[in-house]
Amino acid sequence: MPPDVPPEADLDPEDWPAFRAQAHAMLDDILDHVAGVRARPVWQAPPARLPASLAAGVPETPEPLADIHADFLRDVAPYAVGNLHPRFMGWVHGAGTVVGAVAEMLAAGLNANLGGRWQAPIELERQVAGWMAELTGLPRTSSGLFVTGASMANFVAVLVARTHALGAGSRTDGVAASGARLVAYASDAVHNCVPRAMDMAGLGSGALRAVSTDAEGRMDLPAAAAAIAADRAAGLEPFLLVGTAGGVDFGAVDDLGALADLAAREGLHFHVDGAFGALGVMSPELKPLFAGMERADSIAMDFHKWGQAPYDAGFVLVRDPQKHMAAFASSAAYLGRAERGLAAGSPWPCDLGPDLSRGFRALKVWFTLRAYGTRRLGATMLQTCRLARRLAERIDAEPELERLAPVPLNIVCFRYRTEEDSDRLNAELVTLLQESGAAAPSTTRIGGRLAIRAAIVGHRTRAEDVDALVDAVLGLGRRLAPGLRSPQA
């Protein structure tokens, strides 16, 4: 240690061999945690003691790394949300992979800031963007950006469309300066992050028209065209049409080709919220469901859903990189560009989104795509859809159960039949399933009725897990509602 550096100012290990041994033990423990996931409950509520034990003051002095690790194993690891588990079916969460976990460790070790500069990690992110453009059918020249998740990806797309509609001057003068009143269109089943994006973009969530859907959960095209015409007649300015590739309630996929036609006729930015569904293009069997997505002006997707990358790994792809940059690029002396040196490599990711400080999210996706390949990942996606169809068949064969929605992808919505207060019983049934650790579905509403929602997303789920969910629902339902209503009633 140089004499001018006090020991407490140096944060590297004093004993590298001891640290290496502890680090290897930590890696082994988390791999054991993943490998043994099937033997544990899907979810466990954190113990009552936990809030108090975590209420200690800010640590001022060093603690042994082994002690901190022991606290993690005791107080944190057993009580996570549970999406590693094969019977986690509550929300559209991927299960992650150990490949992605190790890649995340490598990214943390590099500690690279991907806001800008001339560096290999940004080139790797551009490579993944090129792969996504190729897979979805957009031009390889499209721009792509890793973000936290599809909520931010959809927000970026709204800002790109808004800036294009109002002109670059709106970034300086504000959205009200032009006097235009922008309106957008999506199905009434669109994810809540889209109206929130309209809100955060300064346009107001009320400026998003919720277009009715058909029996398959797809946007009603004549209703969308009529809404656009009515808004134009009222002096409003339609600017954005949002298609859904994998609806939040039961996985519906809009007729993206017909929406692309409508957007082209009306001069609208056509965006696809493909938070989990867009990656289905990796499966040859599923790809036809997303026909028309290749005509989108932008696409939002999540690699941490069907792509099975560890959280978080959202992504937005924009067809026209100049249109993308126009919404975000700005000049600042400390962000000056050059032809050589660290200031080379323009445009930078900070020209494509709101973040200047950005982690190396692309690395775990790059590893995942290379380690498994799109064919294997696509086969995993197709398998989740097959399991969903198996679940639907089991439900349809059980007089005590009722399916409430179609199953276009990998989400099944159903309920236990009862004579009275069915919503309350089914909600209690889901809570008991979660608390027991046997399975973890969630709830939603279909046609005003509360449904048990099973989203089969993780790659570890098997047929036995689907059957176990049905058996558990039947067992609990019989216990909670002994007076079963006849299915003919």
Tell me the distance between the termini.
82 Å
Our Rg estimate from Cα atoms comes to 25 Å
Q: How many β-strands, per DSSP?
A: 11
Going by CATH, the homologous superfamily of the domain at 113-359 would be Type I PLP-dependent aspartate aminotransferase-like (Major domain)
Number of helices: 14
The amount of beta strand, in percent, is 5-15%
CATH topology tier name of the domain at 113-359: Aspartate Aminotransferase, domain 2
Mean pLDDT: 94
Series of secondary-structure elements, N-terminal to C-terminal: HHHHHEHHEHEHEHEEEHHEEHEEH
Largest sheet, if any?
7 strands, mixed
Low-pLDDT runs of 5+ residues are 483-489
As a percent range, the share of helical residues equals 25-40%
Q: In CATH, what is the class of the domain at 113-359? A: Alpha Beta
SS-based class: alpha/beta
What coarse outline follows from CA principal-axis ratios?
globular
Give me the CATH architecture of the domain at 113-359, please: 3-Layer(aba) Sandwich
Neighbour order of strands in the largest sheet: 1-7-6-5-4-2-3
